[in-house]
Amino acid sequence: MLSHEKLDVYQRSIEFLAAALRISEKLPRGQAPLADQFRRAAMSIPLNIAEGSGRAPGSADRTRFRGIARGSAMECGAILDVIRLLDVALEPDWAPAKALLVRVVEMLSKMS
User: What is d(CA 94, CA 65) in angstroms, rounded to the nearest whole number?
Assistant: First the structure.
């Protein structure tokens, strides 16, 4: 097991990515740009957590990658708000994803 795989924040970010992919697949065809942006932002979270974990403990790089992951998570939160505003996904789809995302952001905030 790699070091980042042991992190709860990484595991939750992978869970969120799976939820984001399911939601993006269900969006109407007219929302393809939104779906693409959502997939890319959601994918950025675990990728940056993993990359930051590969840096020396306490290094500025580690902090920077966690900050990028947090920024991507915040972007996903805004995308979920847009999805809700546009009424293009059902609440049972986006509400659990939003709750998971809040948890990820809280963990990343504490780590930074």
Answer: 26
